[in-house]
UniProtKB/TrEMBL annotation:
Species, as recorded: Rhodopirellula sallentina SM41
Descriptive protein name: Secreted protein containing PDZ/DHR/GLGF domain protein
Lineage top rank: taxon: Bacteria
PANTHER family assigned to the protein according to its UniProt record, in alphabetical order: RIGHT HANDED BETA HELIX DOMAIN-CONTAINING PROTEIN, SECRETED PROTEIN-RELATED
SMART domains membership: PbH1, PDZ
InterPro entries tied to this protein: GH29D-like_dom, PbH1, PDZ, PDZ_sf, Pectin_lyas_fold, Pectin_lyase_fold/virulence
Record domain PDZ: where: 848-913
A Pfam short name: PDZ
PROSITE patterns: PDZ
Length: 924
């Protein structure tokens, strides 16, 4: 029986005149029965049965309906499909939601029989799927204990560095090709000679310019020529310039998966589709009869088509099929190709929402809004570890006049349709993503985005945090048709696995775009509404792979933009060819000069005024101080034609004056043709070390009309640990912010999940040791509000800043640290303590692999069987992650903590995907 749901606030945007109607409640429970009545005492067993009950009782549109889903896991063997007949109305919406305080997980996977595993060889187990619900199913995603496993591959997954720069990739050696790659790996050649079915393999290979990647089936392998020939594939990203090598760069990184003979490492698996047998190699110490192993069977978990006023709230949606070998489609002339679908998909629908949902470990896109849709709203969600992009709004090519892609351009750059705007209404409009986190995006597809907008109008992205992305944080793929607003967002740590591009990227490659012949009067035919970017913090805190990794990258014809009150740090703004861009009251601080590229020869109508532009330090990996304020590329020779650039504060910590290559070698020379009212002076930031770039009252920027804007409202409005910097020397004061919807913050300092009974936050907390801090907001009923925040604070001997930040703080050039002399790496040290031989696990990638992916802590290499630690239960292969509730990152941290410990020792160790706490009294 389900506990009666607590009355809670309505979903944002669903305030209705419900008091004029009766309301119906239907209940679903894992212990229910689809033949039951669906009452609180006789619940149904599935959400689809609830959908059918609404239809059979003719409730749709007659009264508000809520389907209350009781806590538990619902494993689906078919997609939950909703259509026109499942619609509500504005006065009588239909809502599917979890019972408050009862977490609900919807899985697109089915479990394997835990008792059907039999040993095969070399620590590998097998299980026949014949006669089970998984028989005959496509299987390309496997999970153990709710963690994604690795399909057998070569090279093996590099847990220490899973990016393309790690050991999990080889490099192609050929001239770029979409038909084959060559390699020089002797090990691959030796291994491939033993592959019985290489055609089962799939090659994951990067674009030779590292803009993205493709997947190909293996057609054949020519060992004599060290060549892998591609079969079907190569559609997963546009601009198919090939896999291979270019001058001065390593060749395309690649790996091969789904090869049976490469099933040789813990956590790897292989499905023999012909025999319908699944093979799996668990880590040492894991008994498969005691853990849950599941195989994804659905690519879409919720599919909504032609429905209205249908809402989903408070669900955890996970474990769906990878889609990279399914159909993809090139979209407009951005670089992207997409699979039209996601774990949640909307098509031809209106007034629907996804609220407070957690989507993770799905094999393709997270949420996909396809074609005609109006008022689809995503709010308060956490979307992470997706195979492809996080949230996508993508219209239909039929709606675009003179539609073209890189593969199918308009010949001779000519067009005849001069009507403005869309041709049909088959595109998303008036939709939004708000107060949402998208992170860890692009497990398989590298040309992906946290949020992607293409062929759409009036899309709002507000108070979103977007980070840890393979390529772009937010992408506006084309300028059809504008009206978008991106505001109050926090975007950083993007371009993790690709080159070039930026945290925010836009293209304007519509029918008018040809940088040689583009005409100003044609721009508004497609870019009919202004795109507004305001009050965002956009950062690039990582080493650049290529170009500048521009914070805001307006590329190829991007036009009709209004960019105001944005903080850009670590890199800067790029404006490429286009018209009608207003850039006002922004701050940019980095070692990268402004990127002004290929502006039209006539007046661009661009306005750049009342901004603060600071150049400081040197580019990552560069070593030389940046001396220029603007980096022009193929710009009009007469810089008076660069639009209106005035009343700006320019400052360069590395030089004494304003310089622009090929234009001006002093501020005075610049002021003759541009910016007569601009100044070259320190803007006087309040505290850049804590990312407070507001200016002091005496700043020269204020005299030119610049206005300060808030520095603490960027990103999601759920629970936040507010510290901008997470490394500290002696101690650090940690502050929290509660979820904007109200409640009290509770936190933990030992890495455990916070609950309503965890310590209540009332004032800042001071830390003196490395600590994992987790916090969440809870309402008066003890239910979590939104999602928790988690930060690892690291105590270091000296806090180090990137060159640009160190130079900004000091007000003069500070170069990057001198590279140490190149010697072979010293042997990692070991430590003897309490009868144990210990090492820092991060120094031994193979130990990370063997121990379950735990990449921090101290690994027990050997233990004396007679020691107190062994008698307390410690074992060889354990990883110590906490000592007396203090996080242990490495041997140094362990030694520091041991010195402070008195008498009894309490250790938390990681073993077999679980944490265990053990106590003992060490010998004197």
């Amino acid at each position: 029986m389900i506990s009666p749901p607590t009355l809670i606030a309505p979903i944002t945007g669903l305030l209705i005149a419900a008091n004029t109607l009766f309301a119906a409640d239907i209940y679903v429970s894992t212990s229910g029965d689809d033949r039951a009545g669906g009452t609180i005492h006789t619940p149904l067993a599935t959400l689809d049965a609830a959908r059918q009950a609404i239809a059979s009782r003719d409730l749709s549109g007659k009264e508000p309906v809520t389907v209350w889903v009781d806590g538990g896991t619902y494993s689906l063997d078919k997609t939950l499909r909703f259509g026109e007949s499942d619609s509500g109305t504005r006065a009588a919406p239909i809502t599917y939601r979890a019972v408050p305080g009862k977490p609900v997980t919807l899985k697109g996977s089915l479990p394997l029989d835990p008792n059907a595993w039999t040993p095969w060889r070399n620590g590998i187990y097998q299980q026949s799927l014949k006669g089970t619900k998984l028989a005959g199913r496509k299987i390309n995603q496997l999970y153990m204990s709710d963690q994604r496993m690795v399909r057998s591959r070569f090279p093996n997954w590099d847990y220490n560095n899973p990016l393309r720069t790690g050991k999990g990739y080889l490099n192609a050696t050929n001239q770029p090709s979409m038909e084959y790659l060559t390699f020089d790996s002797k090990e691959l050649k030796e291994r491939a000679a033993n592959w019985q079915d290489p055609q089962a393999g799939i090659v994951h290979a990067f674009h030779y310019k590292n803009w993205g990647n493709w997947q190909f089936r293996v057609a054949k392998i020519d060992l004599a020529k060290s060549t892998i020939h591609f079969g079907e594939g190569g559609w997963q990203a546009q601009r198919r310039l090939g896999v291979g090598k270019r001058r001065g760069h390593a060749g395309s990184p690649f790996y091969i998966e789904n090869i049976f003979e490469e099933l040789d490492a813990p956590f790897e698996w292989f499905h023999d589709a012909k025999a319908d047998v699944l093979y799996f190699k668990p880590p040492n110490g894991v008994e498969l009869s005691k853990v849950t192993v599941e195989a994804a069977v659905l690519s879409r978990i919720i599919d909504v088509e032609a429905a209205e006023h249908l809402h989903f709230a408070d669900f955890h949606i996970t474990q769906s099929l990878a889609t990279f070998m399914d159909a993809y489609e090139d979209i407009a002339r951005g670089d992207w190709a997409i699979h039209r679908g996601g774990a949640i998909t909307f098509k031809d629908s209106r007034n629907c929402s996804v609220t407070n949902c957690h989507l993770d470990q799905v094999g393709g896109n997270g949420i996909f809004v396809d074609g005609f849709n109006r008022d689809i709203h995503i709010s308060g969600c956490l979307i992470e570890e997706t195979g492809d992009s996080g949230v996508c709004f993508v219209g239909s090519p039929e709606a675009v006049r003179e539609y073209q892609t890189w593969e199918q351009p308009i010949h001779n750059w000519e067009f005849t349709d001069l009507e403005p705007g869309p041709k049909t209404n088959d595109y998303p409009a008036d939709c939004s993503v708000t107060n949402t986190i998208t992170r860890d995006i692009g497990v398989y597809g590298k040309q992906t985005s946290g949020i992607l907008v293409s062929m759409a109008m009036d899309i709002t992205i507000d108070h979103c945090s977007v980070y840890w992305i393979s390529r772009a944080g937010v992408t506006f793929n084309d300028g059809t048709w504008g009206g978008h607003v991106m505001s109050n967002c926090d975007i950083y740590d993007t371009i993790l696995d690709t080159g070039e591009h930026g945290p925010f990227n836009a293209w304007g490659r519509e029918r008018f775009w040809d940088f040689k012949n583009m005409k100003k009067e044609d721009v508004m035919l497609d870019a009919i509404k202004t795109v507004k970017l305001h009050q965002n913090r956009i950062g690039n805190f990582r080493s650049s792979i290529s170009a500048g990794n521009w914070t805001i990258d307006l590329d190829d014809g991007s036009s009709n933009f209004e960019i105001t009150n944005n903080l850009m740090i670590g890199s800067t703004l790029k404006l490429r060819d286009g018209y009608f861009r207003t850039v006002r009251n922004n701050i940019t601080v980095s070692a990268v000069p402004l990127g002004f590229h290929v502006w039209p020869q006539d007046n661009s109508e661009d306005v750049f005024e009342r901004n603060i532009v600071v150049v400081a330090g040197s580019k990552e990996g560069g070593g030389r101080p940046t001396t220029t304020m603007i980096g022009p590329a193929r710009m009009p020779k007469d810089f008076a034609q660069w639009g209106t650039l005035n009343s700006n504060v320019w400052w360069n910590t590395n030089t004494d004056d304003f310089m622009v290559p090929g234009a001006a070698n002093s501020l005075a020379a610049w002021q003759e043709k541009q910016g007569a009212d601009s100044v070259f002076a320190d803007p006087m930031f309040v505290n850049p070390a804590t990312r407070n770039y507001q200016v002091k009252p005496e700043s020269p920027a204020l005299k030119l009309g610049f206005k300060n804007f808030p520095m603490d409202q960027f990103g999601h409005q759920m629970t936040r640990i507010m510290n901008e910097l997470h490394d500290f020397e002696d101690s650090i004061e940690v502050t929290f912010r509660a979820d904007a919807r109200g409640g009290q913050v509770h936190y933990t300092l030992n890495g455990s999940k916070p609950t309503a009974s965890s310590p209540h936050y009332t004032r800042p907390i001071r830390l003196e040791e490395s600590t994992t801090v987790r916090a969440n907001t809870f309402d008066d009923e003890g239910h979590a509000v939104g999602f928790e925040d988690r930060v690892v604070f690291i105590k270091v001997e000296q806090v180090k800043h990137q060159s640009w930040l160190a130079s900004t703080i000091l007000g003069q050039y500070v170069g990057p640290e001198e590279e140490s002399e190149k010697h072979s790496s010293p042997e990692p040290r070991t430590l003897q303590w309490a009868g144990m031989e210990l090492v820092t696990i991060s120094e031994f990638p193979d130990l990370i692999d063997a121990s379950g992916g735990q990449d921090t802590g101290v690994y027990v290499v050997n233990i004396d069987a007679n020691s107190a630690a062994a008698k307390a239960g410690l074992q060889n292969g354990d990883t110590i992650i906490r000592l007396n509730q203090t996080m242990v990152q490495n041997l140094d941290a362990l030694e520091r903590t041991v010195k402070k410990a008195q008498h009894k020792i309490e250790l938390t160790v990681f073993r077999g995907y679980q944490q265990r706490t053990l106590s003992f009294q060490p010998h004197p």
